[in-house]
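BUG: 3D viewer hangs when loading the predicted structure for this chain

Environment: internal workstation, default settings.
Expected: structure renders.
Actual: progress bar stalls at 90%.

Input used:
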Amino acid sequence: MHRFIKPKGFYEGANAPSFITKMTFKDQVKALLDQGLHDRPDLFLVEFEVLDNHKIYIVLDGDNGVTLQDCIDISRAVEHNLDRETQDFSLEVSSAGATSPITNPRQYNKNVGRFLEIQTKEEKIEAELVEVQSDGIRLTWSTREPKKTGKGKETVTHDRVFPFSEIIKSQVIIKF
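Structure tokens produced before the viewer hung:
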């Protein structure tokens, strides 16, 4: 069973030091979320948002995917440590969908061998993710191009590394 263990010096309610009670609601939620994710190093944050109406929206991904139990564990780590008497809120914890854009470099690792559509400033490419490197990804793809000599076209295979800094948008392509 996964439990949230309050870090040493973690206070709430009337016993909390003034710097804790002066944290914004969003900061409190983020601190609880960070602690929950610290306890689960196989999971990582893809998206986090707290709307004006105190709706908390958390999207997770994991090195080996995300199960319903993973979402429940993170939800409990946040929800059970917030006081609804102080601030009413709603909480939604979900996993990144199969066709959701890739926003965290860590997401590429579990997609090696799949086809991606990536967009850079110069081009949009559909290619197979072959390798994840520390600073980018290596893709391979084939195109039909005019022959260098003679008439007609030939298939040309491309193999290129794209630094993370150049990728504007990246998404897994589901092929059936």
